[in-house]
Amino acid sequence: MPTGEQTMNAFMSASLTGTEGGRVRRLKGFVRGAHFEPETHSPAAEAFVRKAGNPDIEERAETLFGQVRRAFSYKRKDIDYSCDTGTATIKTPDFEATLLVGQAPGDARSYEVSTLVGGFTRPDVIDEDRFIEVFRGYCDTVLIELANTFDVEAKIDALEESSRLAGFLDYPADASSLSIKVPRGGVQMELRPHEIRFTLDPGGNLRQLIDGAGRLMTELFTDPK
Questions:
Q1: Residue 8: what are its φ and ψ, rounded to 5°?
Q2: What's the rounded Cα separation, in Å, for the pair 13 and 82?
Q3: Which of 17, 38, 55 is nearest to 107 (CA)?
Q4: Which of 53, 90, 182, 189 could form a disulfide with 97 if both were Cys (CB 3.0 to 4.6 A apart)?
Q5: What percent of the chain has pLDDT over 90?
Q6: In whole angstroms, what separates CA 126 from the centre of its chain?
Q7: What is the pLDDT of residues 93-116, one digit of tens each?
Q8: Which residue, among 17, 10, 16, has the nearest Cα to 146 in the 3D structure?
């Protein structure tokens, strides 16, 4: 059975993500009368959206930089900050945060701003109140990339045999993936051969996501007795 420390160590290879967006014409670098919203997805359209969205990313990154610096009491020399053409990166002694803007995959005329937090150097930082407070408005998903291919079919069989989660499993006929959603748990987990993804239910918060992901990870990798 994994210990709490082992479960938390899994987050060292994890990333927290979140997205939000809107119409391209709402970006601060979009000039009405001179610019037009893209009609299709293309490298040129992507480059245009990144350029038009750069002022928005700069503003968000400056805000996040201040929040991170104050929350963790970092000194100037502790943080490496860069921002260029729709991408900003904030590197700290404990983690790295990236903000980027681009075309929304499902709508050529819309943009999507993504936040990615990863590169954790100590696993417990993700559970600290100050980390939760800073990133609660930015992230709603935890993604853990697996170094080795995971046998999803075998895990389904094991959980169905001897786990309290047996009644909450959902999977396709070929058992290529596994979803687990416990009622009132606030978090849904999806397991694939190369990744585990935890998503937050509507109305939930980042603390629920982190706690729920930790509980499901523990149950997922607990060897049945």
A1: -65, -35
A2: 23
A3: 38
A4: 90
A5: 68
A6: 12
A7: 999 999 999 999 999 999 999 999
A8: 10
| Structural domains in the chain plus CATH codes | 1-138 (no CATH), 140-225 (3.30.310.10)
Q: What is the DSSP letter of 201?
A: P
Question: Structure tokens of 66?
Answer: 């201040």
Q: Which residue is listed with tokens 């400056």?
A: 62
Q: Which residues pair with 116 in a beta bridge?
A: 17, 98
Backbone torsions φ then ψ of 195, nearest 5 degrees: -160, 155
Cβ contact 126:136 at 8 Å = no
Bridge partners of residue 22, in order along the sequence: 111
Contact 152, 192 (CB under 8 A): yes
pTM of the model: 0.85
Confidence category of residue 201, pLDDT binned at 50, 70, 90: confident
Task: For residues 199 and 139, give the distance between their C-alpha atoms in angstroms, rounded to a whole number.
Answer: 10
